[in-house]
Amino acid sequence: MSPGGSAVGDRQLSEQEAKSLYETMVLARTFDEKAISLHRQGRIGTYAPMRGQEAAQIGAAAALADRDYLFPTYRDHAMFVQRGIDLREVLLHLLGDGQYIDREDPAGLTTFPITIPIATQLPHAVGIGMAAQLKGDDVASLVSFGDGATSEGDFHEALNFAGVFNTPTVFFCQNNGYAISVPRERQTASATIAQKAQAYGFEGVRVDGNDVFAVHEVITEALEKARNGGGPTLIEAVTYRRGAHTTTDDPSKYRDEDDAADWLQEDPLDRSRTYLEEEFDWSAEDEEAVHQWAKEEVAAAVSAAEEHTGYEPEEMFEHAYAEMPDHLRRQRREMVDEPRVDH
Ligand SMILES: Cc1ncc(C[n+]2csc(CCOP(=O)(O)OP(=O)(O)O)c2C)c(N)n1
Ligand SMILES: [Mg+2]
To answer: Ligand 1 site: residues with CB under 6 angstroms?
Structure first.
């Protein structure tokens, strides 16, 4: 360890970097809590909480270069935050605003919108990596997904392709213990998810997903390897979904919270804060200040997002295709011209 830096493997994270990761984790959790409350008040639609996964998401996103591609899931709000996307925009998306994809010109798009259909983003990440490779771009592509996604055909097809074509892809699996109500043990008979990489001919790495510094380190190494022609890596970040699957789910119906007791002691924010206290004299005042800052940031984002009103239901048709296919054109017409219910 060097003065002012923390040794994480062979890498040094400066005091500023370590604090910045923690501050973003607090911001993400504050946002998460607010989003759940907004849903309860009917102010946003269904929301997938990320409590417990802040270290995995932020450690991974912080390792990306701006030019790298990110393919997130519906639970990866903290990745957007770390990636520098305005909280207001994250909220606008949750409010049903379809503008996100138009925000950047397609050529400059590096952070892709979330995908709801499980694992469909994996082949996209492989494909874009292959394209970058052919063009000679010095970029990697990181795709995030859950333990449940590893049972999808898209997962296997993507990893197979990536192995054969040595694509610059980092497969980032957040193993949070559940796919809605299906526990990890019922998802796969493999001892680990990381070991699945072996079947496709590349490296799999298992990392403590509640340790933001560890995640940051393994993802940094995998991205560098990918950019240097070393091919893909599968990373399994072992973590825990502390909350419900979504705001419309009740986990007490299928999981025994006593079994979760060990996990609940592994809170990623507590761990990072303890580290900062021990290494960098992080104080109660520092802690209070970061929470105050996070509350203000989130409150400002909510006000700004809620200024946008007047969404029209037919907007849902606008962003799926460059040219609307006939069947959607018909549906849109029915909705606008022949509504069956009064609005
Ligand atoms: C192709 C497809 N099948 C089923 C679903 C319904 N579904 C939504 S979330 C989910 C579980 C996914 O679990 P996991 O991959 O572990 O991600 P997590 O929700 O835990 O982050 C399922 C089956 C879906 N969205 N897409
Ligand atoms: Mg899961």
So the answer is: 75, 116-118, 145-149, 176, 178-180, 241, 245
